[in-house]
Design brief:
Blueprint lengths: L5 E4 L2 E4 L3 E5 L8 H14 L4 E5 L5 H5 L11 H5 L10 E2 L5 E4 L5 H7 L9 H8 L6 E5 L6 H9 L2 E7 L4 H18 L5 E8 L6 H13 L11 H5 L7 H4 L4 H15 L27
Parallel strand pairs: 3-7, 3-8, 4-6, 4-7, 8-9
Antiparallel strand pairs: 1-2, 5-6
Helix pairs in contact: 1-11, 5-6
Bound molecules: adenosine-5'-diphosphate and magnesium ion.
Length: about 290
């Protein structure tokens, strides 16, 4: 019963909510799903219990961790519609420590079906709060829009991480995204923090890449780790595994391991090597300093 987010000290049982990170950018094809899947796998490889929630009707994160969308019985659609809890829709993956709440095409309809629900923007947040599985980190893969699904993700998130491809119009889209984040903070989630930008499909030989990267670094917090363009990252999804399980030595897999390390440095989680309380041993190490 003791999951990653449940700590037992003597007879005191402490539920620690997960740290929820939305991977968002309203532009398609910038590496949101690739980042969600590979960052989630890398965090799990660092022995954190991770839940990936696919918030995109395209379901690419779902198939990317090897779940056949045709076989899905419960998905994030059912969760948002109140037809089941998050835990009932959670499936294991081939990556130890990583579970997924899958998405299927019917998620497109959720936006319309929820239009009259007063709590439509915060349903995902409520579902995560009610989860008993005790994930330490929840990763939300957002769709390429700023509609209700992304609003739900940003309302549920503690932090937002933005994958960005270094191309000509990158900064323009970023301004729009920042305005949306500010609106979400004002309306639903005052605590939402901007975690930073991850430069994806980075091509160090391209001068435009350098120019855009420089401009972005001038204005925003940007992760030191950049993700290079790497064919292994685009091949791995067709094998239903993150790059770490497909080719762990590839530059893509190694970049996401580096990104996970950099992210973990800033997360208020207890170190893995922390000694466990003698009276009762939780499945994972105690997280006395975890976020409240
Ligand atoms: N670093 C990378 N190197 C090579 N291909 C990548 C990389 N990141 C993403 N891709 C590929 O680019 C396409 C779009 O990436 P994806 O993560 O699906 O973007 P999004 O979720 O933002 O739409 C996919 O085909 C993916 O495999
Ligand atoms: Mg995607």
């Amino acid at each position: 019963m003791d999951g990653g987010g449940v700590v037992v000290y003597g007879c005191e049982r402490v539920e620690v909510p997960p740290i929820t990170i939305a991977i968002a950018n309203q532009k398609g094809g910038v590496g949101k799903t690739t980042t969600s899947v590979n960052l989630a796998a890398s965090l799990a490889a660092a022995e954190r219990s991770v839940l990936l929630i696919d918030c995109d009707p395209q379901g690419n994160a779902t198939s990317g961790v090897g779940v056949d969308r045709r076989s899905v019985e419960r998905s994030v659609y059912d969760v948002l519609l109140g037809q089941c809890g998050l835990d009932e829709a959670t499936l294991p993956t081939r990556v130890p420590g990583l579970s997924i709440v899958p998405a299927t095409q019917d998620l497109v309809a959720a936006e319309l079906e929820l239009v009259d629900a007063p709590d439509r923007a915060t349903r995902l947040r409520d579902a995560i709060a009610a989860s008993q599985r005790g994930a330490e980190i929840v990763i939300l893969d957002c769709p390429p829009s700023l509609g209700l699904l992304t609003v739900n993700a940003l309302s549920a998130a503690d932090r937002v991480l933005v994958p960005l491809q270094c191309e000509f119009y990158a900064l323009e889209g970023l301004t729009h995204l920042m305005a949306t984040i500010d609106r979400i903070k004002a309306a639903y989630n005052a605590e939402l923090a901007f975690e930073g930008i991850v430069l994806t499909m980075y091509d160090g030989r391209n001068s435009l890449t350098h120019e855009v990267a420089e401009q972005v670094r001038e204005h925003f917090r940007v992760f030191t780790t950049v993700v290079p363009r790497n064919v292994r990252l685009s091949e791995a999804p067709s094998h239903g595994v993150p790059a770490l399980l497909y080719d762990a030595q590839s530059r893509g897999a190694q970049a996401y391991l580096g990104l996970a390390r950099e992210l973990l440095e800033g997360l208020p989680l207890a170190p893995r090597e922390a000694p466990r309380p003698a009276a009762s041993k939780p499945a994972r190490g105690p997280k006395a300093e975890a976020k409240v």
